[in-house]
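Structure in, sequence out. Go:
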């Protein structure tokens, strides 16, 4: 019986070569075989990295729990950037700086300090029969009256200013400086309890207030101290202040004049608590300070009569 020779399609060799080429390309790219209805290459469920465990669903070829490769962000600790210089602040008042590997423009903070607290100052610079007057929470409506009284008795004092108040009253800040008084940072918003603030919030409250006070005072303005609102010092905020060139300022006499206990109560507390070299805490801002002004009218001549001279806090 005569058999008709089987005829091979002239397209089959081309088709075979096409499939072989497709498979070779897929192998190089880490893709599965060709042959979908569309003819497109399809990614495999997982891709493997030579020498690494293959974890389904990760797509990175690294086994779950495996340490990142040396040189990656996760493998290398980031070094924080020091606080910004005075006057270098964003529109929000936050210091500008970047951490290596971080997004440019993100405010950077000095690291939290877990160590011991620094010394909080509660005495005058020269000691002896001296006293340092300090006024918190200004500048405010009573600041001018306080300055007038100090000038009358030739007294120099230290003003611990709220950053936003300084920014709103630059003329008063300039007057404080022009009359020979000194400045202290008392935070931007006076949050309490200050010692409970997260590190980055404490950095902002301290550094931004310092920058606001410097800007209000003008070129050459120096802020020598930081006083934590409510006396809420801890190792972290003391070291933040020290990194900005400020000493931590406390007090030794507190007549609680902010609570308006009455003029007689303010005067008697100062007279009973004061010892030579003491630092008196009073307020020229943060509310009605008429009792403070009235008490100061009595305390200044009494201090002079007791032989006290006036000094700045230790630094």
């Amino acid at each position: 019986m005569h058999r008709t020779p089987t005829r091979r399609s002239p397209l089959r060799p081309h088709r075979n070569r096409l499939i072989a080429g497709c498979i070779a390309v897929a192998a190089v790219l880490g893709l599965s075989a060709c042959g979908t209805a569309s003819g497109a290459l399809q990614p495999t469920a997982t891709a493997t990295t030579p020498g690494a465990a293959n974890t389904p669903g990760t797509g990175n070829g690294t086994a779950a729990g495996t340490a990142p490769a040396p040189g990656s962000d996760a493998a290398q600790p980031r070094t924080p950037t020091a606080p910004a210089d005075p006057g270098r602040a964003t529109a929000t008042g936050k210091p500008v700086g970047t951490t290596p590997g971080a997004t440019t423009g993100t405010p950077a903070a000095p690291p939290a300090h877990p160590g011991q607290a620094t010394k909080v100052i509660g005495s005058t610079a020269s000691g002896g029969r001296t006293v340092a007057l300090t006024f918190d929470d200004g500048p405010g409506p009573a600041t001018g009256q306080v300055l007038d009284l100090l000038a009358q008795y030739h007294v120099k004092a230290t003003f611990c200013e709220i950053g936003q108040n300084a920014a709103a009253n630059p003329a008063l800040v300039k007057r404080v400086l022009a009359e020979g008084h000194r400045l202290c940072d008392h935070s931007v918003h006076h949050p309490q309890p200050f010692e409970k603030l997260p590190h980055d919030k404490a950095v902002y409250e301290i550094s931004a207030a310092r920058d606001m006070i410097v800007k209000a005072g003008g070129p050459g303005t120096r802020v020598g101290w930081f006083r934590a609102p409510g006396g809420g010092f801890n190792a972290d905020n003391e070291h933040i202040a020290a990194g900005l060139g400020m000493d931590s300022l406390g007090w030794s006499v507190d007549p609680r004049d902010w609570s308006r206990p009455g003029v007689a109560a303010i005067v008697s507390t100062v007279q009973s608590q004061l010892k030579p070299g003491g630092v008196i805490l009073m307020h020229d801002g943060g509310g009605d300070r008429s009792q403070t002004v009235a008490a100061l009218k009595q305390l200044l001549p009494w201090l002079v009569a007791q032989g006290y001279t006036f000094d700045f806090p230790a630094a």
